Amino acid sequence: MSDIKGSQDKISINTDPSSPMEESATNLAKNFDHMDKAAKFLAENEGKYEPMSDIEIKKMIRKTDWFLLPTLFFTATMGAVDKVALGTSAIFGLRTDNHLVGQQYSWLSTILFIGSLVGMWPMSYIIQRYRLGKVLGCCSFIWSALTLLLCACHNFGGLAAIRFLMGFVECAIVPGCSLMISIFYVKDEIPHRTAIIFMFMSSVINGALSALASTFGNTIPTWKYIFILIGSVSIVWSSFVIWFLPDSPINAKFLTNKEKYFTVKRVSDNKTGIENDEWKWGQVKEGFFDIRIYIIMLFNFGINIPNGGLSTYSSIIINNLGFSSVKSSLMGIPTGIIASIATVFFTWCASRWNNKRCLLAIISLIIPLIGSIISYTCSHDNTAAQLVGLYFQYFYFASYVVMISCVQANTAGNTKKAMTYSFNYLGYCGGAITGTQTFRSNQAPRYTGGFISMLVGYCACMLLSASYWLVCIILNKKKRAFLESNKGDSESSAAVKGDIYEVVESSEREEAVADLTDKQQIHFFYTT
After folding, report:
1. Contact 246, 252 (CB under 8 A)
2. DSSP codes joined into one string, 179-242
């Protein structure tokens, strides 16, 4: 039996090295009160099932893909549609009907992200503390109801209040979906599945619904029909999510008991944790001193400057080129298709080229950089060049998703993951707020401030991707040096306090099923 004494800063584990892997996991789960629930689940089901063949494992992964990915995709997409819908609604009369003047329209987009900033920390705690699937479903339902309430507004104050509340609950979606992917798939499977979930299809759905709404007549303004359509679809969908979406593989309705067991077992090899509802302040402290969190937060800030600006103003930019309101909404559909194709391509490359994710993020940023230059330097009368430049700018989304996959692969410990995703969202909101405010109405149609902010953002993100790459290489070298100096201890692991590793006896498997951070696991190496 194991004698285990644990704390967040130091862990001492004594085991019999000759005991089988499953027995070691059993002992660990029985004696460590704050273990990841996955460890307890593995221990309770130990020896019940025959090993799965490679064909059975592939079938199990495909089943998870068919049930989980569409659910998360549509949940995340409907959460993004309302941001794009604001821009489409603007060209169908929202600004005039609500008597918006000056920068009030820009503030309607900005205030949603301010609401997200306010809601980020309480939502981060709720995601970690309560059932993940139910939290995502409930948040989706609330923002859907708020979308319907936008139709009752008739001035800036009412719109701003509802937009703030929408941002408050919506901030759970991106970190929640990211966390869900990290607990169902192994590291190499994460990038392209993250791309599918966050595929930029909101523009496609919004364009189609907006064009449909324009055919409903003039009983009420078209912009209200747009929000009624989006809110109604989203409310029906979120009701399904509340019932269906699991919290982890342990309670996934679409998996058999055997498949649940082997999903948990294979995902435990990520060493990033699967399910633990205890909030651990030691992991919070470690997160605050992890430089990678701040690099990614700044990256998200820079990359979401174009996100905030383009999601709010792209329909207006297209409309300013001389297209009608209906055509402008339809011309926005290619932005989503282009962003989705770019994202799928670069994340597909990331899943096949080991440790090239940061490099791919840098390469993918070159295209939107060129697009921004084309849009700004070409004559506004050159409609074809303006559209090409605008569409090129949507390649930015690929680098965003590639770096998200890096964070998913490189962050262990359930509390630390929740905190890290919150910091990511902090950068996301900050960048989006900046983007919406740098596009000034009095600078139309060139939007000089917006162009400069995007140019600076792209260049800064290239440098930040390279910095993250370098930091991970340095941390991996330190861990390898430590293991090399202690290579005589075949079962040695490490507890970490500050930047000092302390040798303890535990297996790599025990690290994987314990709720330990990436820093506490000496066998954990960072993906670059």
Report:
1. yes
2. HHHHTTS-GGGHHHHHHHHT-S-HHHHHHHHHHHHTTS-SSS-HHHHHHHHHHHHHHHHHHHHH
* Type of residue at 364: S
Range of the domain at 164: 54-475
The structure tokens 């402008």 sit at 328
- What is the number of domains present in the chain? 1
Q: What is the pLDDT of residue 275?
A: 57
Name residues whose C-beta falls within 8 Å of residue 498's C-beta, 6 or more positions apart in sequence. none
Question: Does the pLDDT value for residue 12 go beyond 50?
Answer: no
Paired tokens of 37: 């629930």
Q: Is residue 30 part of a domain?
A: no
pLDDT band, residue 164 (cuts 50/70/90): very high
CB 515 within 8 A of CB 35: yes
Please tell me the distance from the alpha carbon of residue 67 to that of residue 252, in angstroms, as a whole number: 10
Which residue bears the tokens 């003047």? 101
At 191-232, the pLDDT tens digits run: 778 878 887 777 788 778 888 888 888 888 988 999 999 899
Residue among 393, 400, 401, 375 at smallest CA distance from 334? 393
Tell me the two tokens of residue 431: 């960048």
pTM confidence score: 0.69
Any domain includes 524? no
Which CA distances in Å does 204 have to 80, 85, 182?
11, 11, 27
pLDDT at 503: 39
Are 237 and 139 within 8 A, CB to CB? no
Q: Does a structural domain hold residue 393?
A: yes
More confident residue, 62 or 265: 62
Does the pLDDT value for residue 4 go beyond 60?
Answer: no
Distance in angstroms (rounded) separating the CA atoms of residues 194 and 72? 10
Separation between Cα atoms, residue 326 and residue 352, nearest integer Å: 41
- Does the pLDDT value for residue 137 go beyond 80? yes
Residue 519 lies in a domain: no
Check which CATH number belongs to the domain holding 229 and give it. Answer: 1.20.1250.20
